[in-house]
Amino acid sequence: MKQLFQHAAITEGITVRVAVNFLPEQSRPQDGKWFWVYHIRIENGSHERVQLVSRHWRITDGRGMVSVVDGEGVVGEQPVLEPGQSHDYVSGCPLATPHGTMEGFYTFHRLSGLKSRGGEPLEVRIPFFPLAAPAEA
Question: Which segments constitute the ApaG domain (predicted)?
Answer without folding.
Answer: 8-137
